[in-house]
Amino acid sequence: MPIGPLKRKPKGPRPISLALQGGGAHGAFEWGVLDRLLEEEGLEIQAVTAASAGAMNAVCLAQGLLEGGADGGRAAAKARLESYWRQVNRNGGRNVFGDTSIWTNAFAGGADWLKNTPGWRLAETFALSLSPYEFNPFNLNPLHDILEAEIDFEALRQRSPIKLYIAATAVRTSRAKVFRDSELTVRHIMASACLPQLFQAVEIDGEPYWDGGFLANPPLWPLFYDKTPDDILVVTLNPFVREETPKTPGEIMDRLNEITFNAALASELRAIAFVQKLLDEGLLKDNARGRYRRMLLHAITADKPLADLSLASKFDTEWSFLTDLKARGRLAADAWLGDCLTKVGVSSSLDLRVGFP
Questions:
Q1: How many C-beta atoms surround the C-beta of residue 109 within 10 A?
Q2: Bond prior to 357 in cis (omega within 30° of 0)
Q3: What would the pLDDT profile of 205-243 be if each residue is shown by its tens digit?
Q4: What angle do CA 118, 124, 126 make, to 5 degrees?
């Protein structure tokens, strides 16, 4: 049953915007989603809004599309994404996503049986008590070097083939900041992925920034106020629903992390649902109706594909794990295409009236 008013079936490739969540190494799931979507000739990605790991996937996608041009952009984008994640794997030994448990792993050798003991938790507590200004005074971050090697930011600023919206959190004002493709540098992407427990704040134009996922994971509102496709496909990395109540300290922290990084997105989706209700029921005055745009919402969620993974796995950069995540992403995207591609440009496949996902 269609959700909301129907539109005419579009001619040619169906334009769409992507909204990519952040989530460390779990971003390889988005890699798989993008890899599959790029094979679908009936779909055209025209804009991406993203935070953290999603921001890195976004600039890799744009870089590949730019390199390949009109004829080979899709293949080049697939290659660029794989190149980036290979570099993440190769630099994983340098703690590429900043897991503070590197210190406890060094002493325990990563022995799984130790991770639920009081001694292990005490060691992790000690590691978390250290500021990144203390345990990483030189502010080393291998992701900076990887991005500089993979992305020509000057070229993207001048002629990005897709619109980019990259979120960060302004530390002093506690406001979400969205950077556009015309201003992006490697520092903007690093700011979007800056977890404050692990990395020093990234300063841009005198303002320190932390991870965009705190306040916009990812931001949807730029897509409403700019000339972008009416369809938005949200790709999440943090499960919204878990059936079991967490009970161990690790499980509790994992679930709290997921809830925290889903909060901003859930809030935006509730606001969209409210506006759509006003539009559907004709409750807006004529002078207000034209200021609101009807968007068509779709989603590929992490609830089932990533339900078996813990917070700790967001720091796992083993190639076998990353490629497993890619395979999960491809399967999820393939299922979505089979169920929902025909709805793109016509109607929403995500029913916000019954909640999200």
A1: 7
A2: yes
A3: 999 999 999 999 999 999 998 999 999 999 999 999 888
A4: 105
